[in-house]
Description:
The complex is a heterodimer of chains A (115) and B (116). Chain A has 115 residues and is mainly beta. Chain A is built from no helices and 11 strands. In chain A, strands 2, 4, 5, 6, 9, 10 and 11 form a 7-stranded mixed sheet that branches. Chain A is globular. The N and C termini of chain A lie far apart (37 Å). Chain B is mostly beta strands. Chain B has no helices and 12 strands. In chain B, the strands form 3 sheets. In chain B, strands 2, 5, 6, 10, 11 and 12 form a 6-stranded mixed sheet that branches. Chain B is globular and about 45 Å long. Chain B starts with a strand and ends with a strand.
Amino acid sequence: xxxxxxxxxxxxxxxxxxxxxxxxxxxxxxxxxxxxxxxxxxxxxxxxxxxxxxxxxxxxxxxxxxxxxxxxxxxxxxxxxxxxxxxxxxxxxxxxxxxxxxxxxxxxxxxxxxx
Amino acid sequence: xxxxxxxxxxxxxxxxxxxxxxxxxxxxxxxxxxxxxxxxxxxxxxxxxxxxxxxxxxxxxxxxxxxxxxxxxxxxxxxxxxxxxxxxxxxxxxxxxxxxxxxxxxxxxxxxxxxx
Lengths: 115, 116
């Protein structure tokens, strides 16, 4: 039973570029959430997708956008990258829609470095 | 607004010692959920426990135990007889309503190092 998988594991970009991160949820899960974790900090909620729609959004600018596909996998897109976007991006999956009181299963993350 | 505070940034103990990780939370919601997650060096967060605001019973799972006290808004985590494999960053998290939506807020984490 595969857990949450994310790709790529590492990525290096320069300021102003665009990036796409990918996530496949745990088998049987239909909800995907994305988190940004800066060095030495806890994860910060970016947004959550359920039934191919963005259901909740944290305090992140419109440069951060996403998509969920019919097979429940998801993408996170970040446009016009800034140095401050350098972080570990974590994907988490759960079932039962967009309730945030559910246990989350996390992937190992994508480490994004913006130079 | 809701907030989770983990005042201990780093803790170092010697194997077999007991260690307690502190978590203090703030919320105006009356129905909320508290979590602990473990983040080993590999990066993925691993769920440890979830408690709701109506259940103040302490819980024990093997060497792990949790003490939930609403009166002090605390949800502390104790590891008994620590082992080197317990070395990781531990996060406390709160799910509660903030504005019109329920949000999940993480603390900044406590880096636990268990020395052999």
